[in-house]
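The material for today's practical consists of a large collection of protein records. Getting from the letters to the C-alpha cells is the skill we practise here. To make this concrete, we reproduce a full record directly below:
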Amino acid sequence: MLDLNQTSQQRLVMETFFFGYQAFTAKADDMLARRGLSRVHQRILFFIAREPGLSNKALLEVLNVSKQALNIPLRQLLEMQLVAMETDAADKRKRRLSLTRGGAALEQTLRREQMRLVQAALASAGADAAEGWLAFNQALAGRQESETESQDSSSPSVDS
C-alpha cells in the first residue's frame, strides 16, 4: 500500500501519473499537430460531440476557460469546417455548436485511439483496478474546484 507521507511514494505517484498522461496524449497530439491543432481543440471537439447543440456559454463553463481562451481555437475549428455554429431558433442571442462530418470523424478517430490505450491498460490492471481508476479520476475531478479554494488539512504534506 502506498504511504503518501513519504516523499519517494509521492514522487512515484506523480511520476506514474505524468508518464501515464503522456502516453495517453502522445498519439492524439501527433494526429492533431499534423492538422495544426492541439489538445485544446480536442477538448472542444470532445465536449461538442458529447452534447451536440451545446451553447458557447455552456462550452465555456464545461471547459472552465475565459472567452479569450476559447475564441481562437474555436474560430480555427469553425474555419477548418470541423465545427458548425448556428443561431438558436428560440433565442437569437445564443449560438449552438455542433460537429460537422469532418469534425465528428476527427473526434471519433482521436477518441478511438485513446480508448484503445485505456482499454489495454485497464485490461492489464484488472477489474478492481479499473473501478479504482475511475473512482480516483472522478474524485480528482471533483476536488479540482475545492482544492483551489482551500487546502485539505487531511492530505499528506508535500514537504515530507
About this structure: Residues 146-160 have pLDDT under 50 and may be disordered. The first strand starts at residue 54 and ends at 55. The CA atoms of residues 64 and 145 lie 10 Å apart.
